[in-house]
Amino acid sequence: MADDDSPQNTENRSFFVRNIPNAITFVTVFSGFLLMVSTSVPGVSPKVCVFATAMGLCADVLDGQAARVLRVKSKFGATFDQLADLTCFGIGPAIFFVRQQQQAMGADAPWSMQILTCLAGYMYLACSVFRIARELIVHSGDRPLYFVGIPTNLACVFAVPASATFAGSTFLPFLIVILSGMMVMPYHIPKGLWIVTVTETAVTGACQKRSD
Question: Most buried residue among 141, 147, 201, 204 by CB atoms closer than 10 A?
Fold first, then answer.
């Protein structure tokens, strides 16, 4: 009997069904776009950016779940998901952090803080790109079941709200640097972050696993 997830069976499904997960991934891309556009449009509230990040996180979970349920996993979908993550959880937060920090500090801020802010923002962006590239190589374009270093979406959970809430703080650039380093550390982390168990076909909660 053929594997339901085989490329042949995936191709046999309708174009609409095959692209449902990709359509959800476009929401993640749009969320990253909102983060980046917010830096050039005056008057955009940081709360909108936090909401955009939350929307991107939800879409990032749902696209993988949809691919498993519909059995339409593909290398294209996995690669598209990683690049969407880079947009929403890597490039977007880096630009958002720099904008928030620079606006809060003002033009008369010490040059050392301005340089530190730019370096921290660049480090976050560069480490995000490095991490995504490494994931694509390590997992050969498949959807990963574990992470090497903390995922960009987990780093983003701390980076964006902190940038929105503590803009101008001296410790904020150091938080961004720490998150950047954690993204590229060479340690394997379960995709479920020890909260749920993620397999090729299902996501199982810890409580459900114990009851079984």
Answer: 147
